[in-house]
Amino acid sequence: MKQITKGLAGIFAAGILTLFSLAGYLKLSLPNEYYLEYGDDLRLPSHFAANVTSAFNNNPNDEMYTVSLKLLDSIPIKDVQVQLVEQRMVVPGGTPFGIKMFTEGVMIVGMSDIQLGTETINPSKDAGLKIGDMLISVNGKSISRNDDIKNIILESEGNEVTLSVKREDEILEFYLKPVHNEYDNTYKAGIWVRDSSAGIGTMTYYDPETLSFGGLGHAICDVDTGRVMPLLSGEIVDVNISGSSMGESGKPGELKGRFVSNIASGSLLKNTELGIFGVLNNAPVEVSPIPMAYKQEIKPGHAVILSTVSGDKPQEFNIVIERVNYSETNDTKNMIIRVTDERLLTATGGIVQGMSGSPIIQNGKLVGAVTHVFVNDPARGYSIFAENMDKQLKLVEKEHILSKYN
User: Does one domain contain both 300 and 370?
Assistant: First the structure.
């Protein structure tokens, strides 16, 4: 009898330990913040296979309140913040666009040594400059084009110049002394710089009232340094997709297209880690708005993406959302998706470059956008929550409004 009792006690203790372990897992897995539409209840995803309940800690009629999450109505998980919002209605995209952007300053993308007699020297490296630095001004004169820095160095006649540089979030000052290149009788700084970028992306959605839009779902980065290119000015233009190179294991594919007009269809406001954002000149498609889903509404299972792999009109393709990651450590890799539509697999091999920003729709709501392909499995890739993109868009809109009055 004692052995039976002891055995039951062991089973009970193991069960309690399992529940507390599950509560710890949920504490890390569930978000700390939620958006919730007025009149709705906080419904957590059932795929956690746990009876998670919530209880208001203050008046649920407030616009912001705290909710205590508990496992089985008894084991505390954590307190989360819930903000009440109006239902967000947006127009899904899927249309391709050409991107033309100029950077804020010029980016150092490479360095090269200069022959000085029997020695080699690099003035920029010696001055303390690094690849990825943004040159903002030289001798107090603003820099916005490659030729700006080139002409100032040529005219320096070897005299020291003062460089204002943005590195990460700091503005730094460096002193550089150009050297004379005897081969072409000019002065050199020993750097390669870039002032612009161009490419093809996909629009995720736009606001039918303000015509503000979001696309890509990730930043435009310099091809050589991998750094986010700070936007000075930019625009989007219409594009026609002529085909694609197939995605293969170890070799991502790419949409091929051409700019069909030099007339801008919209202006860019900001290039961010969560995508590019701007304002359209006109509504591009006559599509009815659909609700935007919040992260707690998204579930693993069937969904569709809107993407353009031929011409200029998006098509609907079937996918499966394999995993939803509610961790807040990465704002762009929130879901893992897999292409199941044979038409898309035949046309592109799966997810290819240029499809970034393709909207994902589940249960009639915009849930996110395609962002990255798995290099070794082009049928699968990462996606971002639409909620994260929209949060960034609202910040960009506020900055744009404030800039008009400053």
Answer: yes
Q: Catalytic site residues? A: 218, 341, 356
pLDDT tens per residue, range 293-337: 999 889 999 999 999 998 888 999 999 999 998 876 777 899 999
CA nearest to 330, candidates 218, 168, 204: 218
Q: Do 238 and 209 share a structural domain?
A: yes
Which tens digit of pLDDT belongs to each residue from 70-99?
Answer: 777 778 888 888 888 888 999 999 999 999
- CATH assignment of the domain containing 117: 2.30.42.10
Distances (CA, A) of 33 to 42, 66, 84, 184, 388: 11, 9, 11, 61, 12
Q: Are residues 78 and 216 in the same domain?
A: no
CB 307 within 8 A of CB 216: no
Q: How many CA atoms lie within 13 A of 217 on its CB side?
A: 33
What is the pTM assigned to this prediction? 0.84
Amino acid type, 48: F
Q: How many residues does the chain have?
A: 406
Do 18 and 67 belong together in one domain? yes
The 10s digit of each residue's pLDDT in 256-293 is 888 888 888 999 999 999 999 999 998 776 778 999 99
Q: H-type helices in 129-270, by residue range? A: 146-155
Residues 6 or more apart whose CB falls under 8 angstroms from that of 127 comprise 163, 174, 175, 176, 177
In a domain, 285, yes or no: yes
- Same structural domain for residues 173 and 322? no
Domain that holds residue 180: 113-189
Q: What is the mean pLDDT of residues 13-32?
A: 73
How does DSSP classify residue 128? T
At 114-146, the pLDDT tens digits run 877 777 888 889 889 998 899 998 888 888 888
Is 45 within the bounds of a domain? yes
Mark whether 184 and 309 lie in a shared domain: no
In Å, what is the CA distance from 403 to each residue of 269, 346, 397, 399, 400? 11, 47, 10, 6, 5
Structural domain count of the chain: 3
